[in-house]
Structure formats: structure tokens, C-alpha cells
Design goal:
two-stranded parallel ribbon; mainly alpha; single chain
Amino acid sequence: MLAPFVSESFKKHRKIAEEWQIPDAEGYARARTEKECYDAFQSLEYEVNTLHTANGQTPFVTFGFGLGTSWESRLIQQSILRNRIAGLGKNRKNRGVPETGCSRSATA
């Protein structure tokens, strides 16, 4: 579901690399896209972990990211998992919420 957005981001970065005549435009675009995707899921992780309901509880959230095999889908999966494993804050804590999971019928 998000893979087309990753693809568009890659195209944007490749175009910038070509405009600036960066020798390895493909590598530049891939590196920038990987960082952008990781940063996006880091922001999402932070936002979800700082949500609170009216009575002070944190909502239960599940990220389903499928088993997509394209480069874009795998980048999404890796970004979600790397952020979950890394944790948040200076102590790199992970609260366990949101849950992560994959489904054979879903794609990233």
C-alpha cells in the first residue's frame, strides 16, 4: 500500500542526482530514499508512542506490513522493524506498542 510512495520518492531523488550530475545517481537515490523511509517510520513510532486517551492510557495499535517482495516493500518492512528494534529516547526503550505483524495476503 505504501510502496508506490517509496517508488515516487526514489524517482524524485534520482532526478535530483541527475540534475546535480552526481556520478552514482542510482546509489544516491537509493540511500536518500532509505533514510527518508527510516525517518518517516521513526516519526510514526514516536507519534504512536506519545498518544494518550482521555484517561491517560496509550491506545493499542498494530502495524501490518505484509510480505511484499519488491525493493520498496522490503524497505518499508525493514524500516518498521529497525525502528521497533532500536527503541525510542536516550535509553532506547521499546514499550511493545505498537505491535507489528505480517500477513500473507497483505502487501506493504
